[in-house]
Design goal:
By secondary structure, this protein is an all-alpha fold. The chain has four helices and no strands. The chain is about 65% helix and about 0% strand.
Length: about 70
Amino acid sequence: MKPKTIYHQRVQNYIHDARKFAKLSQKQLAKELGVNQSMISAWEKGVKTPFAAVVFRIMEVTHFRPDNF
């Protein structure tokens, strides 16, 4: 596995923090985004990185803004 960049680590942390801020479970956030729970888990663990459009959608759903990033 190649080393994570700062960007990937920040996205990983942002997704977890945004979800917790909104008091959503992985399953609930997944439903809002139209993905399965395992994808949320993979993003939070840094196994996969979502497209920028997904990160923006997470911002909309959770109301956790980029200045919190």
